């Protein structure tokens, strides 16, 4: 499980990159960071990232809708920004792994993506207004896994938020 100090460190990193590059839009941020983006059909994968010939890249499933692409890009950008690929040539993530908040690298990439795509204030407001996890995630235009990650981080920070049960609200992979 992600600690509060690690979550705050990751949130600071996301904020620093957004400020440095003048955008929190993950696709634009990736381009400004010199990360190559590739859109193609990748059966059963929303996205993956890696480094080939010292060039970082993010590959995204072109069959996904715009919000899912945005979320997957933010997640993969998290892997690159947090140094998860050091010593690895390729990182492939399946949709089922994205919901696994117990896996350190996936929890960290989800934390980064959630910080980039939704402020604490916006997430709390959506939770208050909608109550329902699926509706709150839709209001924020983020995927269920990232909403769940945001809710877990808010809970770590002491907010009275109950992270949603992912079995009840679905998954990114449902959109493929």
What can you tell me about this protein's structure?
The chain is an alpha+beta fold and 176 residues long. The protein has one domain (4-159): Arc Repressor Mutant, subunit A (Orthogonal Bundle), CATH 1.10.10.2910. The protein has nine helices and four strands. Strands 1-3-2-4 form a four-stranded mixed β-sheet. Helix 1 (4-21) crosses helix 5, helix 6 (120-130) packs across helix 7 and helix 7 crosses helix 8. The longest helix has 18 residues, at 4-21. The protein is globular, with a radius of gyration of 15 Å. It starts with a helix and ends in a 7-residue tail after the last helix. Mean pLDDT is 85; it is low at 88-102 and 172-176.
Quick structural overview:
The chain has 176 residues and is an alpha+beta fold.
Distance between the termini: 28 Å
* Spatial shape: globular
**Rg:** 15 Å
Structural class, please?
alpha+beta
Task: Explain the layout of strands and helices.
Blueprint: H1 4-21, H2 26-32, E1 36-40, E2 47-52, E3 55-61, H3 66-81, E4 90-93, H4 95-98, H5 104-117, H6 120-130, H7 133-140, H8 144-156, H9 166-169
Parallel strand pairs: 1-3
Antiparallel strand pairs: 2-3, 2-4
Helix pairs in contact: 1-5, 3-5, 5-8, 6-7, 7-8
Q: How would you describe this structure in keywords?
A:
single chain, four-stranded mixed sheet, 176 residues, globular, alpha+beta, Arc Repressor Mutant, subunit A, disordered C terminus
